[in-house]
Amino acid sequence: MKNYIYLIAFLFAFTSCKKETETQAKETPIEQKKAEFSIIIHGGAGTILKKNMTPEKEAEYNAKLEEAIRVGYNILKNGGTSLDAVEKTINVLEDSPLFNAGKGAVFTHEGTNEHDASIMDGSNLNAGASAGTKTVRNPINLARAVMEKSPHVMLSGNGAEVFATEQGIQIVDPSYFFTESRMKSLERVKASEKNEVASFYDENIKDSKYGTVGCAALDIHGNLAAGTSTGGMTNKRWGRIGDAPIIGAGTYANNATCAVSSTGWGEFFIRGMVAHDISALMEYKGLSLKEAANLVIQDKLTNLGGTGGIVAVDKDGNMVMEFNTPGMYRATMNDKGELYIGMYKD
Ligand code: ASP
């Protein structure tokens, strides 16, 4: 009887040990493929051509993109959240006059600056956005406060500014956002005004005054986040709101799939629900992030007549930059600290 019990105990120990080895063997290659964390940014897509760029301007863009992404990289490397990485990285780009967000935002028809922004937390599908604000220095901070401190997803105009003030978010005089180069763009666009629709679209594209900023990140806790901030499009009017503050169009994040930030001709990104469409193709059709982004930007958006691009990271840390314009300011950093910066089509 005693020997029989020993035999059963031995067999039990043997099979559980075998089971563990099998499980490990199955899981190890997947684990090895995963990046601990990743971060990707854009500074807008458009007619960005080497022949139009001076070495000095190129160096300025490179330096700012690197400065911004390193902020997020350091947060992620130290175990911080993807939400913090996205917000703080975007702050650097918002504070730079090089990009069409925060300081350096494009001008509306009336000569004002109106900002749109949004942020999304992939761990719980929580999201926040602000639209048409004129005095909030860093609109991405307001978007995050809307997400975390209000029962709403999107606030706009004066109400959003009242909320921002109540939350202690920095308010500035509208003159803070003024830049000479963006004013010149507005004057150029207005001077060439043939009819309202043609000038709005043609001149924005010719003038390549996209330049929205965005960021997507995966943190070591496995959480994805994305955010986007913009001044919109030059000569916009009637309180026009673009895709940047629209969850699913300009920004989307879902731990089950990916995190996406868009830039380009906003009306088409809204109609195509670009950011969410990429996630949906992964979720429902099992496409990889690369396949989904390629299909949405190169086929669906292009066929619709839209121009622009996206940056995205999936739940395994794979990063994708997809655009159908001549260029897109962009940068990536992986968990090994490898940095990539690009502007033109490779
Ligand atoms: N998507 C932005 C908008 O339409 C513009 C941009 O990306 O630069 O407002």
Strand residues, percent = 15-25%
Spatial strand order of the main sheet? 4-3-2-6-5-1-11-12
The sequence of SSEs as H and E is HEHHEEHEHHHEEEEHHHEEEE
Average the pLDDT over all residues and give the rounded result. 89
Structural class: alpha+beta
Low-pLDDT segments: 10-32
Describe, in short, the structure shown.
This protein is of the alpha+beta class. The chain has ten helices and twelve strands.
Main traits of this protein?
10 helices; alpha+beta; about 350 residues; binds aspartic acid; eight-stranded mixed sheet
Structure, explained:
With 346 residues, the chain is α+β, with helices and mostly antiparallel strands. Helices cover 42% and strands 22% of the residues. It has 10 helices and 12 strands. The strands form 2 sheets. An 8-stranded mixed β-sheet has the order 4-3-2-6-5-1-11-12. Strand 5 (213-218) and strand 6 form a beta hairpin. Bound molecules: aspartic acid. Residues 44, 100, 210-212, 230, 232-233, 242-244, 263-264, 266 line the site of aspartic acid (ASP).
Give a topology summary.
Blueprint: H1 2-33, E1 38-46, H2 55-77, H3 82-94, E2 115-121, E3 126-133, H4 139-149, E4 154-156, H5 157-166, H6 180-191, H7 196-206, E5 213-218, E6 224-230, E7 251-253, E8 258-264, H8 266-272, H9 274-285, H10 289-304, E9 308-314, E10 319-323, E11 327-334, E12 339-344
Parallel strand pairs: 3-4
Antiparallel strand pairs: 1-5, 1-11, 2-3, 2-6, 5-6, 7-8, 8-9, 9-10, 11-12
